[in-house]
């Protein structure tokens, strides 16, 4: 599984990282690190919950 964060949509709410800190890292400005990131084993459900919690729809999940 992989998650992709669209930096143009991200507004820094940090809901994704609050729900899945092992999946969504924050950059130096407090936004979710942009780009595609592999989901660590066992973190699939937190990754999906984090994506659904994003109020900006900035996260896409692919398998
Ligand atoms: S929840 Fe969405 S808007 Fe907030 S930091 Fe994560 S990706 Fe960005």
Determine the strand fraction and express it as a percent band. Answer: 15-25%
Q: How would the global form be characterised?
A: globular
- The CA-CA distance between the termini, in Å, is 4 Å
Bound molecules: iron/sulfur cluster
Total helical segments: 2
- As for the CATH topology, it is Alpha-Beta Plaits
Total number of β-strand segments?
3
Give the % helix.
10-25%
- Regarding CATH, which class? Alpha Beta
Order of secondary-structure elements: EHEHE
Structural class: alpha+beta
Identify the CATH architecture. 2-Layer Sandwich
Biggest sheet statistics: 3 strands, antiparallel
Mean pLDDT, to the nearest integer, reads: 97
Poorly predicted spans: none
For the largest beta sheet, what order do the strands appear in spatially? 2-1-3
Descriptive notes:
The chain is of the alpha+beta class and 63 residues long. The protein has a single domain (2-62), classed as Alpha-Beta Plaits. Helices cover 24% and strands 19% of the residues. The chain has helices spanning 15-19, 44-53; strands spanning 2-5, 35-38, 59-62. It has a three-stranded antiparallel β-sheet, with helices on one face. The protein is globular, with a radius of gyration of 10 Å. It starts with a strand and ends with a strand. The model has no long low-confidence stretch (mean pLDDT 97). The chain binds iron/sulfur cluster. Iron/sulfur cluster binds at residues 5, 10-16, 24, 31-32, 54, 56, 58-59. This is Ferredoxin. It holds the Pfam family Fer4_15.
């Amino acid at each position: 599984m992989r998650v992709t964060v669209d930096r143009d949509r991200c507004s820094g709410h940090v809901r994704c990282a609050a729900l899945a800190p092992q999946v969504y890292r924050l950059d130096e400005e407090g936004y979710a690190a942009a780009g595609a990131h592999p989901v660590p084993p066992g973190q699939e459900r937190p990754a999906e919950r984090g994506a659904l919690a994003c109020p900006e729809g900035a996260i896409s999940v692919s398998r």
